[in-house]
Every structure is written in structure tokens, then in C-alpha cells.
């Protein structure tokens, strides 16, 4: 892409670019910078980039002769409005990726920053009321259809939007102390197959990591010490979540078979533990947790169930005597997914992960009573409008490690407000730490290693790991 200067028809004076040309000469020569003069219609800029297939790394604004580094980090080939909008009365946070400080207050009614993938709820609401839509040719490059045209229309007209919130949900990622909880993201292995969607990591007593590739119906085994990947089981019934019981048996959520099963790791014998409730089939078991009494709690959900033959989306408890109890179901839950309990077994956490508009994308917490029943439902952490968590695990201090977020839009109403990676969330719902993962879709995680301080993560075609400062709860280590 060539170094491009957009001159505004609205501006009567011609500002000089000499003040920053020298500074950006290297970047200009490398075709990574797009410079925009104040007043240029934002929609035209993105149309230009679409038509020329331009993918600049940085977009800068020339406002009253001053160059402001406004747009940064377009490495994902996606322009996503972080969207701080307003006039000189509104304070402006410093862009996280800028090498020079952004003015404390906006010198004019236009500043467009991108330091993260975010959505501005107020702009989205404006577009909703105005019934604005985006040409399909641009949709794939923007945060969301309504958000973009609402933003471009407002900026192109030089409007101020004082009634809308200036801070997006991505402000939750500011001032995190991630190093206190998480080390660096490391690649354990990459899976090559006809189709790959990894899920359900679980670690056995010898430290070997088992996880699933759902579309090929395989359970894979990774040996960290030898760095060897092997197929442990084929025709897995589209196995999803896995968990080792205290005696070493592997518990499997066979989504394709609609069954929770136990696999004897010594004999290889497969036993169906639950596949019906009150005469109807279970929807696909998704994830599971075990308490010290041997009771199994599991989520059950599919996209388009036949309710004549199947139960609703739900959460169940399977007792050691084989009794199945339905603890939660629609409409109280929308799309139950990851499930864990606190180390003291007094709280059960459930991820809700529905991709449709105005549906739950949050972590719910429930008091877990001695008889295995649930009370006092409450929202611990809300990911909406971004992608919710999928799977999670918990450390010995009760902090949740949640696999959540997206790099790219995927045709649902989910935005990119939730960054893709591991989110460490306290028992009070506060985001404590975050580490980004390399590709979509991050799905699940568990603790392993000799000290239970290695977090294994299934993410797209990768099995990843992160060393943690706090070990996982003791029950992650089978006997």
C-alpha cells in the first residue's frame, strides 16, 4: 500500500505534514502507515482500504496540524473501533500501543483509537435506532455491522455523542497484574488432520494430557516429557469434555452419542453412566466436574434439539448409585457449558455461552449444598456482548481460569469485546490476569504437571501451555 493522505473537503486550511513526515519515514517506506486528515469521512477511508486491499499497521489522524497516532495493531487484518468519541470536555485515556503520549483532552471533536478489539455500546444503540446497515463488502473487516456505520455516520457528520459511555468493556483489561498469575504461552503441539476442533483437556496421574478432536471423533494423547502426540481412541462419539476420576478412570462427554461414559483405563471397557432423563434422551453432554463424594455434575446442550425426544438444555448431577437429577434447565439457563466447583465444594460455577442476541454469556455462581442441590444463583462475570467463556478450571485459591474470546467474528451476534485467551477471574468476579492465545477457537483448559502449575489449553489446532503461579486444586490430580 502507498503512503496515502486524505484531505478533507470540510477543512479550509491546508495543514503541513512536515511535523511528522520525518518521524514516520521508515514506516512510510515500509507501506504500513495511513495518514488521515481531520474531517475525512470514516466510511470513505474504509472503502478505500477495501477497494485497494490496504492493510496498514497504523492509521494516524492529522488534527489542527498535530499528528495523533490513533489506530494501532491491525495485525489481525481487522479494523475494530475501540471508539473513544466526544469533544474536548471528555478526558482521553492514553493509547496503550502509542509510542508518544496522546493529548489528555481531545483538541477537536474527532479522535478514533484502537488499542484493543472492542465495541461501544452507545454507538451500537444509535445504529439500532437508526436502522443503519453496512455493505457486505466491508463487514468482514469491522467489529460489527451496526457499530461501524453508527461510528462512521457520527464521525463523518462531526457529531458529538456525550450521552454515550466512553469506556468499552475492554477497559476491564487495563492495569491487570497478569505476571502474578500467568507465565508465557507456549506451544506443546499442533494437530494436523482433515478437520480440527480441539476440546476437553484432562491430565492423568502420569502427567499425560488427553484431549479431543471433535469433528474427527478422536481422543488424542500428548506426552509432555517425550513431546509425542498419539491417537488414544477413535470413534469417540464426538467426545467433548474429559475428566479423570479419582481412581484413574476416564470420564467422557460423548456429545455425538448423547451420553456420559466411563472408560476403564486398564481394561478399556466402556460403560454408559447416563444417556436419558425421565424417559427422554439427554442433549449432548458438554463438560463435567466431580466432587469428593463421587457425584458427577455435567452440562448438556445442543444447537437445535428435538424436544419431543430430547430433554431441554440442562445441568445434571449423577450420583454414585446411578440416580440422575436435573439441577438447572431452560429457561433458567440458556446454553450451559463449562462447569467447575470451588476447592471447598461450596460453590458451583457454570459458564453460559449462547451466541444469539440478548442471551446469556456469563459465568454463573451457585451455592452448592451438602446434598448436591444448588441455590442462590448469581452472575459472577458477564462477557456480553463478546464471546463468553467455553471451558474453565480452578486453582487451589478459588480463582477461575477461563477460555474465552475471539480473534474474528464468526457470524453470531458475538462481538470482539472479549479478547481471545485465558482470563483469570477471582471468586468475587474480578478479572485478575489475561494471556492472549494465537488463534480461534480457544475452548478449554486444565491443570497438570508434577506441581499442578502447568495450565494446558486447547485452542484451535494447538495444544498450548502456560505455567501458573498458583497450582490447580488438588482434585485435578487422580490417584
Brief rundown of the structure:
The protein has helices at residues 18-21, 25-29, 42-52, 121-130, 136-139, 145-156, and strands spanning 4-6, 33-37, 58-63, 66-71, 182-190, 198-203, 209-213, 218-223, 228-234, 239-244, 250-254, 259-263, 270-274, 276-277, 280-281, 285-290, 296-300, 314-318, 324-329, 336-341, 347-353, 361-368, 374-382, 389-394, 400-404, 421-425, 431-436, 442-448, 454-459, 462-468.
Structure write-up:
This protein has helices at 18-21, 25-29, 42-52, 121-130, 136-139, 145-156, and strands at 4-6, 33-37, 58-63, 66-71, 182-190, 198-203, 209-213, 218-223, 228-234, 239-244, 250-254, 259-263, 270-274, 276-277, 280-281, 285-290, 296-300, 314-318, 324-329, 336-341, 347-353, 361-368, 374-382, 389-394, 400-404, 421-425, 431-436, 442-448, 454-459, 462-468. The termini are far apart. The radius of gyration is 25 Å and the shape is globular. It has 479 residues and is mainly beta. The strands form 8 sheets. A 4-stranded mixed β-sheet has the order 1-2-3-4, with no helix packed on it. Strands 5-30-29-28 form a 4-stranded antiparallel β-sheet, with no helix packed on it. It contains 6 helices and 30 strands.
Q: Helix- and strand-based class?
A: mainly beta
Helix content: under 10%
The unreliable regions are 1-43, 52-167
Number of strands: 30
Mean pLDDT: 76
Record the SSE blueprint:
Elements (H helix, E strand, L loop, with lengths): L3 E3 L11 H4 L3 H5 L3 E5 L4 H11 L5 E6 L2 E6 L49 H10 L5 H4 L5 H12 L25 E9 L7 E6 L5 E5 L4 E6 L4 E7 L4 E6 L5 E5 L4 E5 L6 E5 L1 E2 L2 E2 L3 E6 L5 E5 L13 E5 L5 E6 L6 E6 L5 E7 L7 E8 L5 E9 L6 E6 L5 E5 L16 E5 L5 E6 L5 E7 L5 E6 L2 E7 L11
Parallel strand pairs: 1-2, 2-3
Antiparallel strand pairs: 3-4, 5-30, 6-7, 7-8, 8-9, 10-11, 11-12, 12-13, 14-15, 16-17, 17-18, 18-19, 20-21, 21-22, 22-23, 24-25, 25-26, 26-27, 28-29, 29-30
Amino acid at each position: 500500500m502507498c503512503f496515502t493522505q486524505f484531505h478533507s473537503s470540510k477543512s479550509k486550511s491546508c495543514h503541513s505534514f512536515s511535523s511528522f513526515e520525518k518521524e514516520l519515514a521508515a514506516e512510510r517506506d515500509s507501506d504500513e502507515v495511513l495518514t488521515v486528515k481531520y474531517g475525512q469521512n470514516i466510511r470513505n477511508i474504509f472503502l478505500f482500504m477495501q477497494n485497494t486491499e490496504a492493510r496498514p499497521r497504523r492509521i494516524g489522524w492529522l488534527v489542527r496540524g498535530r499528528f495523533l497516532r490513533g489506530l494501532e495493531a491491525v495485525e489481525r487484518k481487522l479494523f475494530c473501533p475501540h471508539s473513544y468519541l466526544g469533544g474536548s470536555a471528555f478526558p482521553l485515556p492514553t493509547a496503550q500501543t502509542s509510542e508518544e503520549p496522546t493529548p489528555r483532552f481531545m483538541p477537536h471533536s474527532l479522535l478514533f483509537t484502537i488499542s484493543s478489539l472492542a465495541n461501544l455500546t452507545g454507538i451500537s444503540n444509535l445504529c439500532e435506532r437508526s436502522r443503519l446497515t453496512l455493505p457486505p463488502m466491508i463487514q468482514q473487516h469491522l467489529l460489527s455491522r451496526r457499530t461501524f456505520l453508527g461510528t462512521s455516520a457520527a464521525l463523518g457528520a462531526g457529531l458529538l455523542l456525550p450521552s454515550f459511555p466512553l469506556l468499552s468493556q475492554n477497559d476491564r483489561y487495563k492495569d491487570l497484574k497478569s505476571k502474578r498469575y500467568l507465565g508465557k504461552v507456549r506451544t506443546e503441539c499442533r494437530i494436523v488432520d482433515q478437520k480440527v476442533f480441539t476440546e476437553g483437556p484432562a491430565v492423568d496421574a502420569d502427567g499425560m494430557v488427553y484431549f479431543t478432536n471433535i469433528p474427527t471423533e478422536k481422543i488424542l494423547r500428548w506426552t509432555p516429557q517425550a513431546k509425542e502426540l498419539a491417537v488414544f481412541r477413535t470413534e469417540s462419539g464426538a467426545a467433548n469434555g474429559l475428566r479423570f476420576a479419582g481412581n484413574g478412570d476416564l470420564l467422557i462427554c460423548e456429545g455425538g452419542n448423547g451420553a456420559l461414559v466411563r472408560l476403564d483405563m486398564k481394561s478399556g471397557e466402556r460403560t454408559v453412566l447416563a444417556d436419558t432423563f425421565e424417559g427422554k434422551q439427554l442433549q449432548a453432554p458438554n463438560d463435567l466436574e466431580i466432587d469428593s463424594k463421587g457425584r458427577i455434575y455435567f452440562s448438556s446442550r445442543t444447537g437445535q434439539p428435538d424436544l419431543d425426544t430430547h430433554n431441554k438444555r440442562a445441568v445434571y448431577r449423577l450420583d454414585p448409585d446411578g440416580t440422575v437429577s436435573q439441577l438447572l434447565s431452560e429457561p433458567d439457563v440458556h446454553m450451559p457449558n463449562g462447569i467447575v466447583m470451588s476447592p471447598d465444594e461450596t460453590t458451583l460455577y457454570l459458564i453460559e455461552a449462547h451466541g444469539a442476541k440478548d442471551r446469556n454469556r456469563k459465568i454463573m455462581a451457585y451455592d452448592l449444598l451438602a446434598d448436591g442441590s444448588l441455590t442462590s444463583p448469581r452472575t459472577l462475570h458477564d462477557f456480553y456482548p463478546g464471546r463468553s467463556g467455553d471451558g474453565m478450571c480452578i486453582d487451589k485459591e478459588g480463582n477461575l481460569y477461563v477460555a474465552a474470546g475471539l480473534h474474528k467474528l464468526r457470524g453470531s451476534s458475538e462481538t470482539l469485546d472479549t479478547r481471545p485467551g485465558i482470563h483469570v477471574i477471582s471468586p468475587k468476579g474480578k478479572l485478575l490476569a489475561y494471556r492472549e492465545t494465537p488463534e480461534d477457537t480457544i475452548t478449554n483448559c486444565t491443570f497438570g504437571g508434577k506441581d499442578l502449575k502447568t495450565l494446558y489449553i486447547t485452542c484451535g489446532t494447538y495444544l498450548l501451555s502456560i505455567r501458573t503461579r498458583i497450582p490447580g486444586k488438588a482434585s485435578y490430580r487422580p490417584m
